[in-house]
């Protein structure tokens, strides 16, 4: 229902008669003594013969002030000295967000414009049409701003693309806040209770303490969460996986600050061969343009056929043609030897390929030994948990990659994503939902070239919605990410942008004023575009109430406290303290 004009809010101006008013944009003169700012929500009305009144609502997207009566630039001094009569007049450009009923006529010049609040604001921003609303922050007016859950969980759309300058745009902070809000707001109902999240951590150990309350949490921050209808606390169910320490024969997880709730992840040599993971060793986009990729696929098929798991020991070691292999360097050296021998080269690489192509494959394979030796093992007891499986893990699974070199990071991301996506395909059900949080998306799915990881991410973007896999991708430059991934993202979020990046067509959904403002956006300020609202909304989200670095990590809640808080909210955890007001990432 359209809010009554008497409840729309205080009058702030009238529709200008000196500028063209259209059904989609118009200007309003601001009353003396009143003011409007960017992102304010306003509403006006138009009476029509033989029709019910039309309500036109919109958002302020530009505002100006000028002297009326001045002719020359220097007149400003005479006016200031009282020697020349003039009047200061402010005017705001309004971009229409809703017309109700949908009769698209321009507002009448002189029509009173009200500042929208309460029901009028909710109607103007389509919040009244969102049966399931996820709070994503507050607007410039301090009131909550919501995301329609239908465009996050796959009901009508899925996936989130977050762009901005590294270290300033707070992309990872917003991604985790969105995840926290989706899990705790109740908007997803039972799906939120059963949903899982897979978070790849690439920056220090910042995301390894999501289940620890922030010791810097103060009353204003707690009040900010309460304003959004959220508990101020931490994620209650988190498990961290980290790679084994380099050169550690025991396979101890390579983490410095966290010890509890951490397991090492790796792949046995038997799994590497049986699952045909060799192609993810060559995961650079440039690799797919080279002929030696044919050798990759041929060798992967031969490994799946001839690599036999070692029956004794249970370590995941393999035997190939009677040769026992227990480490990844052993496997690489044996493959290079097979490919160097004329008698075995044709069987393993194919007879149609030249020696130069085979040697190119061998050089790159040898270069991978140092990066992947601790991830592909045949010398560790398989009784230790080492497989990342979100279905059998905690609600939030964090895979720590920050200690790995670039090639190893690509391998881990590609293999885990493929495994999780194939598991969802086999299940045949879109529930429970799986949220995948991945930073540096432009590295894994670049616009140019092809790679196994890029193909997996394209599958997630194009088919993940039907399988209940939701990608929350972050990148510094959306212009360098595969177009189809960005195009399939129902929700687009922009933080602080680089000036050159802001001019790219990928940000065409931002009005000119918002593009300019994105160059100045402070940490914690984001511009969020969602399908139902024609204008991206500027939101400020609160400082994380969970630890974002080891120094902020409070003790995890006891089993008693967790059971008490879960009785009211299954995932609520309480923290206390006083924070540094600086977003970490």
Question: Which helices and strands occur, and which strands form pairs?
Answer:
Blueprint: E1 11-15, E2 25-30, E3 41-46, E4 54-68, H1 75-80, E5 87-100, E6 112-115, H2 118-124, E7 133-138, E8 144-148, E9 160-163, H3 171-184, H4 190-194, E10 196-201, H5 219-227, E11 238-242, E12 262-264, E13 267-268, H6 269-274, H7 293-306, E14 308-309, E15 318-320, E16 323-325, H8 328-340, H9 342-349, H10 355-367, H11 369-372, E17 376-377, E18 396-400, H12 406-427, E19 434-438, H13 441-444, H14 452-467, E20 469-475, H15 483-487, E21 491-494, H16 499-502, H17 512-518, E22 525-529, E23 537-540, H18 559-568
Parallel strand pairs: 9-20, 9-21, 10-18, 10-19, 11-12, 11-18, 13-17, 19-20
Antiparallel strand pairs: 1-2, 1-6, 2-5, 3-4, 3-6, 4-5, 7-8, 14-15, 15-16, 21-22, 22-23
Helix pairs in contact: 8-10, 12-14
Just give the CATH class of the largest domain.
Alpha Beta
**If strands are numbered along the chain, what order do they take across the biggest sheet?**
12-11-18-10-19-20-9-21-22-23
CATH superfamily of the largest domain: P-loop containing nucleotide triphosphate hydrolases
Q: What Rg do the Cα atoms give?
A: 29 Å
Outline, from the CA principal axes? elongated
Low-pLDDT stretches are 557-580
Largest beta-sheet characterization: 10 strands, mixed
Tell me the total number of β-strands. Answer: 23
* Content of β-strand: 15-25%
